[in-house]
Amino acid sequence: MWTPSRRKAALRGSIHRKVFRPWGWYDGVDAGERFQVKRIVVKPGGTLSLQMHHHRAEHWIVVSGTARVTCGDKSFLLSENQSTFIPLGTTHRLENPGRVALEMIEVQSGSYLGEDDIVRFEDVYGR
């Protein structure tokens, strides 16, 4: 979770904001006590794990590219300037079915925003 001292350290450059994953990367853009904003880039063909969170909900906004979203038992496509809401406790997945990078903004909100609040059900990268 982003505490005031961690935020100051990040601004000084002692914490790397850009985090690389097998599917692409994310950049922690901003954070407060009950919110966090990330810029997420998913490589063509990249797939995040099927997952859920106990303590946070997420808003996803597509900046460019195409997103295939699984939210509960629904699956649908989003394109540039479209968005969706992932409620707390809902199983979800993000995929890039396109030929160009998918860029999106994720706004997380909740009582705890740590990366260890991820329950994975399926992961093509074996995590």
Automatic annotation (TrEMBL):
All copies of domain Mannose-6-phosphate isomerase type II C-terminal, residue ranges: 14-123
Entries under Pfam families matching the protein: MannoseP_isomer (PF01050)
InterPro entries linked: Man6P_isomerase-2_C (IPR001538), Mannose-6P_isomerase_type2 (IPR051161), RmlC-like_jellyroll (IPR014710), RmlC_Cupin_sf (IPR011051)
Record protein name field: Alginate biosynthesis protein AlgA
